[in-house]
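Q: I'm writing up a methods section and want to include an example of the input and output format. Could you take the sequence below and give the corresponding predicted structure tokens, formatted cleanly so I can copy it straight into the document?
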Amino acid sequence: KRIDQETRRHFIRLCLLSEEDKDLHGKEENEETGCSSSSNNYVSYGTAGFRCHHAALDLIAFRCGFIASCVAAFSPRTNATNNSNDAPTFTAAGICVTASHNEASDNGLKIVDGHGNVLEEAYEHACEMICNAKTEAQLENALDCFEEKLPFLETSREDAKKTAVVYFGRDTRESGERLVEKAKEGARALGGRSSGVAVKICDRGVVTTPMLHYFVYAHGKAVEAFYENNKQQEEKNDEDATERSLWEKIDAATQELAYFKRLAVGYLSLIEEDEEKKKKGKNVVEGLRANATTLPPLHIDCANGVGFVAFEKLMALFDVIRENSSSSENSRRSATPTPTPTPTKEIALVLKNGPNDGPVNLNCGSDFVQKNQRAPETPSTRLSFVNQRCASVDGDCDRLVYFSIEEGEEEGKEGENSSKKQNFMLCDGDKLSILIAFFLIEQLFLAGLAHKISLGIAHTAYSNGAFTKFCEKNGVETVCAKTGVKNVHKAAEEHFDIGVYFESNGHGTALFSDEAVKVIEKELVDELTRMSVEQHLRKEEEKHIQSVILTTKLKALLTLKATIQTINPAIGDAISSVLLIEGILRKKGNMPFQEWHALYRDLPTKQTKVKVRDRTVIECFDSERKCLKPEGLQQRIDEILLLDSCVKNNNRRAFVRPSGTEDIVRVYVEASDAETCEKISTKVEEAVIEFCN
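A: Here is the clean output for your methods example:
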């Protein structure tokens, strides 16, 4: 056992004391919430951690802190540190206190592993056991199960100096600060002389969930780079000096500035125009665009949450970069009396719905916009999204959707009595995937790497049928995964060198494998070398043609490199995605929203929930698109899809799947028209009630 007996007893004693305190003082406080903190309340592990009403989370926060410390303490050392026997270990994990798109009274804890990813599915049951255990025996059993599920514990070195670094962050919910403190107490419970582990707490305050993931990811990369750079040194360095130097590198890499600078520099590199293009002016594509000169400002609904704070900091960094750029330009032109013009603004964002504008996610945020198919309805911004280019993020800023509302007078009506007709258009996760994937395919082709690097899109059963048909028609490979961002992330990672994935709700990113990054970087170096050599060897008349070919390839390689830097490498990130999407739209000649939205037309859909006695009677397969149990339910659904149709209608689709946390069954229906959707949905709901109750 890696967790020594003394530490175990200490942790269990603290857990049991907390249980007693909760039973004495916690019941009255939570009677009105419907989420009692009594011992009968069981909290399930969700997509990335635990989530419920904030009042029921104090004990869970404490135990999650301990889990995170264990994950950090017993993570494997990197290859670089394994080559150095005396190397101190600074392995990390993280906890973000957030309830994402849930209402303000909820909160939750997301656990981040040592690579900056969500904790793997294999550990979830053990974490659930620890957080719900009520007795000493249950806690002992839960800790045994937890250690068994962590295979990387076997690679720990008893003789190594271990420091478990746990990063903490939270969104803007009022309960967040309290829960962070509880989680810190749990994290410190691992540290002690008997455990051989020192626990270091790094509280990054109010940050987005993707930022917290990035800090843990950057921590690991900083440690790896430090030992990689120092492994050539033959002399033995003083251990304390090495530790101080290492921690300075880690601290610099895991600050907000490092995160924002990575994304900002990547974006600026992505949109950089070469001098030749500036001289030539518009190209053919840009000449056809209505917005060829610049993109209109992007109005961002920040869900009354932390995204508003983060975007403000990003914009402040762009201002600093612009000022520095302007100062440098003025220095170069100091001999010329003509004043330097103000540089064009890199990106125009209008931020709306911040933390001071109301409770997080109340009538706003990406979940509200995507599910209700309408703009945010907060008092201060109700009408301000009309006839604008808009986007919406969720409460912890890891989801993103784009939308637009065109308003005009109804036909045949004029004057004061005329009514305004609004046309709502949504670009959800499916259309984000399409835009990014097609852009990257184009760049791979221009870079001559289409045969070396595979690219595809991972999605879930909730992706619109029009999306999958569009991909098939255009030769883009897709793979369907179970619902949940961790499942889609894994599918994208396993099936493609570059895997693009976005759930329909806008949660996703583009993943570049290590091998894909190496191929792109090697090709870029080779191309620069080849250009230099061939310019000397070729005849004058051949140089121009060859330079055009080489320049096109070089631009594509530089674009791919800039894209990699613009993307948060740890997890889906709404801020990163905004920069990437805006960069792509600019690269495509300031592509109008309407043109992007018109790539294909979504089929009408309907999603409902059915209350059942026991959701576990439903068993699904084929990435949850088919139902295995109860027997006969899938056959009934297939029959319903064929009703009122002489021939099989390929636009009709329906599936059912159990909720992960409550006794309800989710029903999804898709058809060529809304009326048919409604009819099919009603019949499928009736079938669920018949077979499940």
